[in-house]
Specification:
- With 165 residues, the protein is an alpha+beta fold.
- Helices cover 28% and strands 45% of the residues.
- The chain is built from three helices and eight strands.
- An eight-stranded antiparallel beta sheet has the order 1-2-8-7-6-5-4-3.
- It starts with 6 loop residues before the first strand and ends with a helix.
- The model has no long low-confidence stretch (mean pLDDT 93).
- This is ATPase.
Length: 165
C-alpha cells in the first residue's frame, strides 16, 4: 500500500494534448481556492527552488493572471493566462502563454481546462492542455512532467497547512 497521491500524466500527440489527473487530500473548496487565488497560487506554483510572483490576477471570464516564476538568482520567466470560461467550484479554462515582462505573449500558447470533483474529503483535479503546436508540445513534455509533479507536491504541503491536516 502506498500513500503517494494519484498522479496520471499522458500525452496524446495526435490530439496535441496533455492529460493530467491528480488527487489531493483536501476539500474541493480549498483546492479550488488554491488554483484561483493569487495569495495561495504564489505558495506552490513554481517548482522549488523557484518561487512564484503574481503581478495581478483578475479571476473572471476575460480576466488575466500575469505572474513570474523567479529563480534563486532572480531570473524571471513571465507567464500570462487569460480566463476563457469559469463554472464556479467545478471548472475553469484559460489560455496560457509565456511572455516578456511587458506582457507581450510568446505565441503559440496552450489551452488549459481544469475540472474539480470531490468525495470523502479528497479532491480530484483533471487538467487537459491543448497545444496549438505539436512542436511546442514535444518540447514541453519531459521537463513539464517533472516540474508539474514537483509543483503538485508543493501544493500538497500548502493544502496540508491550510486545512490543518
Amino acid at each position: 500500500m502506498t500513500n503517494d497521491p494519484i498522479f496520471n500524466f499522458t500525452v496524446d500527440k495526435a490530439a496535441k494534448t496533455l492529460f493530467m489527473t491528480r488527487e489531493f487530500n483536501a476539500e474541493p473548496a480549498l483546492v479550488w481556492d488554491a488554483f484561483t487565488k493569487a495569495e495561495i497560487l504564489d505558495q506552490w506554483v513554481a517548482p522549488k527552488p523557484w518561487t512564484s510572483k503574481t503581478k495581478y490576477l483578475n479571476f473572471e471570464v476575460g480576466g488575466k493572471r500575469f505572474y513570474a516564476m523567479v529563480s534563486p538568482e532572480g531570473l524571471e520567466r513571465w507567464i500570462i493566462q487569460e480566463y476563457t470560461s469559469i463554472t464556479p467550484k467545478t471548472n475553469f479554462k484559460l489560455y496560457n502563454a509565456f511572455a516578456d515582462k511587458d506582457e507581450n505573449p510568446e505565441l503559440p500558447g496552450s489551452e488549459w481546462d481544469y475540472t474539480f470533483s470531490g468525495a470523502n474529503g479528497k479532491t480530484t483535479v483533471n487538467i487537459s492542455i491543448y497545444n496549438e503546436s505539436l512542436e511546442r508540445l514535444e518540447k514541453l513534455v519531459d521537463g513539464f512532467k517533472i516540474g508539474m509533479a514537483m509543483t503538485l507536491i508543493n501544493l500538497d504541503q500548502v493544502l496540508a497547512t491550510l486545512s490543518g491536516k
